[in-house]
Amino acid sequence: MLEDFSFIGLILIPAIFFISRKALRERQPFLIIFCVCIVCGILAILNFESAERGKPNFAFIWFCPLYSLLLYRILLIAFWARKKRDPKIPQPELFYNGNVDLFADRIFGLIFIVLSILLPMYLITKNYL
């Protein structure tokens, strides 16, 4: 059952990152998101018990929300220490216009997306292919 919806675990926090970064920074919404991530982790643990031998176990993907949330907080603390402000959302542009004011903000978003989506996908598929 959980295998059908495992992509939700992979994209939950990155989707919130794109929709509302403020929800990941403020205390009340962060606690609600954190509780949802804990529930996803519990679902993963329960799915480990029912996994069949010799078949790929997609329960690892349900740990991704906790991993992504922790990664976001670590990157955010590093950004605060370096820039002394919250990361801004740069305007999407088709071509780079040469404006370097938001370069650190773009790098922050790129590093977060690469490490929160592509790294777990690589590690999970590496173990099963």
Which consecutive residue ranges, at least 5 long each, have pLDDT under 50? none
Q: Provide a count of the helices.
A: 5
Order of helix and strand elements from N to C terminus: HHHHH
Helix content: 55-70%
Shape: elongated
Strand fraction: under 5%
Instruction: Tell me the domain tally.
Output: 1
Strand count = 0
Round the Cα radius of gyration to an integer and report it.
Answer: 17 Å
Termini separation (Å)? 22 Å
Q: Which structural category fits the helices and strands?
A: mainly alpha
Average predicted confidence as pLDDT: 82
Sheet with most strands: none
Please give a handful of descriptors for the protein shown:
5 helices; 68% helix; single chain; 129 residues; mainly alpha
